[in-house]
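Follow-up to my earlier ticket, as requested here are the two runs.
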Amino acid sequence: MKSYAIPATVIVALLMYSPLFAADPAVQQGPQGAQARGAELQAGSDSANMDAHFVKEAAQDNMLEVKLAELAEQRATNDQIKQLAKKIREDHTQANQKLQQIAQSKNIEWPRELDPLHSAVLNHFQEMQGKHSRNTISTAR
């Protein structure tokens, strides 16, 4: 059981880290907040800016998924967990390659590294060890 603690925690992160991004006020305010935010985006920017925003967020999410999958591959002792992590890493790497091609064709700047929020999520899982990671996965269930 101990050999699964860290990799299982990382796998949970791969599948469930998105609620951490619910700190967005539009998400907290429900549909009205999301509509208001959408209206702001439409009123204050054109479709090119919305495309750039999407590219940045999707790239950040994919880069985090790749890094978390790499962490799971490094720490896993179970072959099934390693295989799942490898598949996640490959899928998100491929998705980012395709997205980067589209971004380049539209002259959209590509993020070079994780932003502070995505870095914090990665750092959280990199620092987990032993009993702490088992407690985290138990409370995540």
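Run two:
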Amino acid sequence: MKRLLLAALLSLGVSAPALGSGHKGADCAGAPAPVEYVTRKVTRYEPVTKTRKVKVTVCETKYKTEEYEYFVDVPETKEEKRKEKYWVWETVQVPVTWKVQVPEYKKEKRKEKYWVWETVSVPYTEKVAIPQKEVRKEKRDFWVCTPRQVVEEVPVCRTVRVPVTVTDRCGNCYTRYVCQRVTETCKVTRTVMERKKETRDVDVEVITYKYEERKGTRPECRLVEKTRDVEVTVVTWKTEERKGTRPECRLVEKTRDCTVKVVTWKKEKKKGTRQVPYVERKEVERDEKYVEWVAKVVEEKVPVTPCVYHEWCGKKRGGLFRCR
């Protein structure tokens, strides 16, 4: 892009000193120079898409058939005569000795303690609250309702028949009555209860309690311990040794002849075929698209700033495109 911009500026007649002079003239203050448009030939570059033939290396996967050898395990079955051991459950009588606890009963006389519920009178003291009634005078507030007549205006709705003149299609006029609701204001008297507070003397009964101590007796149940003679049967245990036999199951080992099939494995060599992949490279021509920049001369109007001479600073001021 930088090369294209430089070529466009050179085609318009702009040189490097001209570009630099514009920056130097910026030091002088004054009004901007007027701009003029001049028709000139300008070189433009346009992108053009083209197609060309390109050789490309392509890898293609193919398969070929080849022979190979492999080993297979083949079973061989043979019959052999062997001796087999086995176990049988047999019942055997075994002598046993064990000890037995034999009870012996004896009668003995003993003293037994027992408890009996007995009712006993127990003295007690308690305090009793005795009520005493007393009349007192107290002031109480009462609310009294007094009736008062109040006159108010209340809106009342009623239905009134109103005559209406109606003309039919033939032009005949006749009068008919229509019901309408009319709201009127009427005076109504109602009774209003007004509450007033009054204070009165009232006799009030006041109950007070006076505590007195009193004594007495009350029945109470208690457990009393007693003793009596009892005849008790006492059991003692005596150890005795006894002998006998019991059946017992045992495993007994035995031997018998049997025929067993024995399998042996033998390796055999075999041949077969299989598909083996391989990669084949080849060159192929393909169409490739690319972009080429083409130069084109066009007539355009270009802004040109004329040179202005400042008498007070003694310098010339020029713009981007100055006069030649």
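The only thing I checked on run two: Residues 12-29, 316-324 have pLDDT under 50 and may be disordered. Let me know what else you need.
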